[in-house]
């Protein structure tokens, strides 16, 4: 209600300048007439949604005079941004510079470059950075396009980029992980259960020739979480919002980590050696049959000399379907931007249906916008279909501050468990470290 009133008053002022009379009309008519008059007055259609471009929902947002933008994103997102920036500049006459900057570097640079006026106007961050970004005062709320964003994007994505009831992000894509497999080596039956994966791997493995049936990153909790969720373990209570209730050493978590530990039989290597580069290289060479990895690799694995499929993680022997972690990448407008209106327009423009489809075609990023699973390019892609099925069994990574205290102790615990250390004792020690870390946050 507050946002609609603000929008209505802004457009009413535009009408006053044009007609020099007081105009009284409904909120809907104000939007429509204001859009028409702004076109006539400014000579450009700024932020007007004609139905599918998603850049303004029949409303106006006038960019600042002389606006120019800097956009930060990692190397996987910059090729698309450079292309879409040209379109945006042509449409709005706003120069856009795209700079390669990974998410961790963005967060660090915002602390120094932000106050110095050197930071980007638009950032691209995973949702679990949001708490830190808000606490640091780095990002502005997505207020002007809030209604459109909440209506047009997946609820999981919207919730992930919302903090304390305030929407900040402009969702771009959802990420999780599932099982990539080489169709020349593996049948779908081999992937129908974890027991079948283990059985297949025992036959396929030849470590001396660096051939493995199954591989995953072993010391990264992001990928190991299904061995917790699939056995009724949990991180924090109350849907990962209560850091006073830690479930990483409960009975289910211990059982799950014992199953994880037993898989060393089919993956005889140190946890630290199962790196992303090693795993990806083996898969591309046809020496790794089943690769537990992220959906961001769909583009990389689409042009290999063999056909690659993707399926959700199967149920564990206890009959339970494991949840994977889901992440949401989104655009955020910098609180230090000199041109916040132009930045908001850009964030909205690059999350339109057309832009997200183009992004998918260039990068394989799966759009967070509703209904895009019906786009032919997406619907006909088997790997994407498998990823979407996995999204149905995913939860957003906890984004509360206390989650940052979980990663290092659990990564260390995973290495020790993989080496054969007692699971219960190792998890107890990890949870104690997590608690100590959380206590330091309170001081």
UniProtKB/TrEMBL annotation:
What SUPFAM superfamilies does the annotation carry? Periplasmic binding protein-like II (SSF53850)
What PROSITE patterns is this protein classified in? PROKAR_LIPOPROTEIN
- TM regions (residue ranges): none
Query: Span of the secretion signal?
Result: 1-24
Which keywords does UniProt give here? Answer: Signal, Transport
Q: Which family does it belong to?
A: Belongs to the bacterial solute-binding protein 1 family.
In Swiss-Prot or TrEMBL terms, this protein is called Cyclodextrin-binding protein
Per the UniProt record, the source organism is Paenibacillus vini
